[in-house]
Design goal:
Layout lengths: L2 H10 L3 E5 L3 E6 L4 E6 L6 H11 L5
Antiparallel strand pairs: 1-2, 2-3
């Protein structure tokens, strides 16, 4: 999955950009009080994208 598509999916489900890390971008879901990191790669493995969504409490893309 493209990183840009995953970020759009996160934002569509109410997640907000929190900060940039060294190699990751941090997103927060304030309703669920959960935080996750998205790596800065053009392609993100499908299993990793599922884990990111599970960690932050939103449905899989």
């Amino acid at each position: 999955m493209k990183r840009r598509a995953l970020i759009r999916h996160l934002e569509k489900h109410g997640c907000e950009f929190l900060r940039e890390g060294g190699n990751h971008t941090v997103y927060v879901n304030r309703r669920a009080m959960k935080v996750t990191t998205v790596p800065r790669h053009r392609e993100i493995d499908q299993a990793l994208s599922y884990k990111i969504c599970k960690d932050i409490g939103i449905p899989r893309p």
